Each structure stands twice: as structure tokens, then as C-alpha cells.
């Protein structure tokens, strides 16, 4: 008699958490500049039935400690019982009120610690579920409604290279012409059909000028700008007026639900956020005040793919648009983001990704499963996430983590090494 693998329980027998570091470029944002190494943690969940599932999350020290506490709490649970896993993780972290070590680099965040910790385990469990029944993760989320997921060109002001090192291949982007050149190169290589500029770095008038230059160079590409809450309410309204009819949405011009609501009343375009609505209990006050019109979901802090799907339904219920936020990431995250986006019917905008900023040689997955063409990634159809761990690469990136010495993302600290007086306090303008 043969065993029905799909019907058998798949109990968690082991969890491996491996911090890794990969090369990053000196990308500027309102709290500082990216360090030469970005951190992630790779989570492998192993079952007594011999299956392994993958998850990827932040690699900061505080978060690693919580991941380890969660890992010991979920041993023995069947990977189909995600509610039980969530429950055990909440219990293991009860009393933990800290927000440190979540890889958001000092930017305002009130995301739920338990949801951030749950996320990579939930993704790994879905990977295993998919492998057990021979179906892609998108099928477990209700099925793909698109077979390709559009991403946007994510432009950054940047230095030519890390101080003391040679210029990198992208070179400097410190004015509108260099931003347009960056966009031309990125769109030439990846085919993106939408453009986002990370702002909050220079005076808002200069950043608005860069957006107008992009509009001229790319008349048909939807545009967005995201200063990460660096502007006052008044500045946001003024810049919003200058960019009326030019950008598809204005992302986090100012901080907080109250501030965003004040801006929303006086600008024509929708406001988007990955800063003031970052957990389920922010939705009610944001909707009540009509503070944001687009939520940028992110399974890394909304508690995984299932809860992010639920967020999609909530957004649809309240007539909110939906798009996807990104941080510097590797291939397991890109696979998870792509399955989620594929299975989210009301996704209304191209998703963000930091992918082009990563050296293609720096990843932990076997190459080939995820490729960009026409600005989109084809949704993997293999069982689970559809990506495979490259153990040699994992070991290499772990070695780099050990040797690199960075244990927390600290864009502000890195910036202050070169500009000691740098002050990220918002509003900066
Ligand atoms: O990578 O510097 C960065 C971004 O600023 C990132 O940390 C943000 O979380 O991309 C993000 C955003 O959209 O706010
Ligand atoms: Mg943002």
C-alpha cells in the first residue's frame, strides 16, 4: 500500500536560521545611506516527512533572537496548522515589546513584532504545503489571477561608490539628469513600465524637478515619489500641488495617520503608505480619516502571505488601492512576493523591488527560477515557491555575514561616518 504524502501530516522537526550578508550599493534615503552589506536571514523549516520549506526575512540581531525563540516554539506542529504556529509564536514573544532589529533602518514603524517573526515561517510552511501536494504557492493563496507580476523601476539617489572604494557600475545619481540616466539604464535592462523615485534626500523642489525630468524622458510611465515621511504637512501639500497630474501616487510624504490625513485633504493625487499603515490595527483609523488611498503591503511585516492576502481583501472592501513595498532582498523573498502578487486580484499598481541593486551573483537560490522580462517576473509554476536553495551560495553569504561584522542595518550611523552632523529627524523640510 502506498502512502498518500499529501494526506499525511508534515510535522516540523527542525528549523535552521542562517544570517547572510550580500553586497549593497550606497543608496541614499532620508535616514542615511545603505551600508556596503545588506543583511537577511534565511529560514529553512524541515518536516519529519523529509520536506524542506524556505523563508527569507530581516537579518538584524534582535530579529534573529526572536526568530530563534519562535523556532523552538513551533517544533512538532503540522505545517498545515498555520494558526497554531502563529499562536505559538505570539505566546513565545509575549512580553516582547521591542521594535528594534527589524531592518527598517530607524524609519517610523509600528509593525507587529509577532507578525514580522511569523512571516518567514508561514512562507516556509506554504512552500512545504505546495511541495506536498505538487502545487505552486499561488494556488494555496486562491490561485494566480495573472501569470506575470509587474514590478517598478525603483530609482535611488546614490553616491558613485562607497567611500574609499572604486565607483560602482551604476555611478553617481545626485541630480535630475543622473536620475533620468539611471532610469534609462534600469528600464533598458529590465523593461519596467512604472517608475518610483526614493526621495527625502535633497530639498523637495530638487526632487520634484527630478520627477518632472522623468516625466519628460518617460511620457507614458506612471511615476511615484517616496520621501519616507521627510516632509512637513505644508511642504507635502506644496509638492503635491507641483506634481498634480504628474505622479500616480505620493508615497509617505509625511509621518503619521493624522499628518497624512491633513495632506490627503489638500492634494489631488492618492497618498500611499508603507509607514503609517503597517499593521491591521492601523487600518480602522486610517480609513476613518481617509488618510491613505493606497496601502503598500509587505508580507515580511504583515505576517506572511495569508495575512497579506487578507489585507488585499480589506483594501478592496474599503476601496483602497494596493501595491507592494520592498526592502533590499534576495530570491526567496522575490519568489514569495511574486506568488502573493499573482494571487491578489485587486493589486492596482506595479510592485516595488530592490532587485536591480543586487549583484546577480549574490543570492542563495539556484539561478534561473526568477527572471525579469518586460518589467515583470513570470509566476513560478513548480510546487511550492518554485525556488531551490543553493547550499554553497548560502554558506558563502553566511561567511560574508560572519566576516562583515554588521549586525544591524544602520543607514544613519554609516552616513554619519562621512557627514557627522547628519540629522535624519523628520520633518527635514
Ligand atoms: O531601501 O532605503 C531603502 C528604502 O528606503 C527602504 O528602506 C524603505 O523601507 O523602500 C522602502 C520604502 O518604500 O519606504
Ligand atoms: Mg515607502
UniProtKB/TrEMBL annotation:
Boundaries of every Mandelate racemase/muconate lactonizing enzyme C-terminal domain copy: 176-270
The keyword Metal-binding belongs to this UniProt entry's keyword annotation: yes
Source organism, top-level taxon: Bacteria
Catalytic class of the enzyme: lyase
Required cofactor names: Mg(2+)
Keyword hit for Metal-binding: yes
Record key words, sorted: Lyase, Magnesium, Metal-binding
Pathway: Carbohydrate acid metabolism; D-glucarate degradation; 2,5-dioxopentanoate from D-glucarate: step 1/2
EC numbers for this chain: 4.2.1.40
Catalytic activity: D-glucarate = 5-dehydro-4-deoxy-D-glucarate + H2O
Family assignment from sequence similarity: Belongs to the mandelate racemase/muconate lactonizing enzyme family. GlucD subfamily.
Name listed for the protein in its UniProt record: glucarate dehydratase
Record organism: Nocardiopsis mangrovi
High-level lineage: Bacteria, Bacillati, Actinomycetota, Actinomycetes, Streptosporangiales
